[in-house]
């Protein structure tokens, strides 16, 4: 659990959740922020989600390599 890749994966997951909550909140609230940034927020969420998946897969792969 002390692996830096583990903490990077957790940070990417947290960033994904934060951006998702902000994006959904802006959709619900509407207004100027939603009109200007809603699509950008969802694109950013997809980027963070991709990074989180890559980091998780990398962590699992490297952890399994060390156990052999």
Describe the protein's architecture and organization.
It comes from Phaeobacter porticola. Pfam families: HIG_1_N. This is Hypoxia induced protein region. Keywords: Membrane, Transmembrane, Transmembrane helix. With 68 residues, this protein is mainly alpha-helical. It has two domains: 32 residues; 33 residues. The mean pLDDT is 88. It is built from two helices and no strands. The chain starts with a helix and ends with a helix. Helices cover 91% and strands 0% of the residues.
Task: Give the beta-strand count.
Answer: 0
Q: What's the overall geometry?
A: elongated
Roughly how many Å is the radius of gyration? Answer: 16 Å
**Strand percentage:** under 5%
Order of helices and strands: HH
Structural class: mainly alpha
Largest sheet, in brief, is: none
Percentage of residues in helical conformation: over 70%
How far apart are the first and last residues' alpha carbons, in Å?
18 Å
Global mean pLDDT: 88
Our count of helices gives 2
Uncertain segments:
none
Please indicate the count of domains.
2
In short:
Helices cover 91% and strands 0% of the residues.
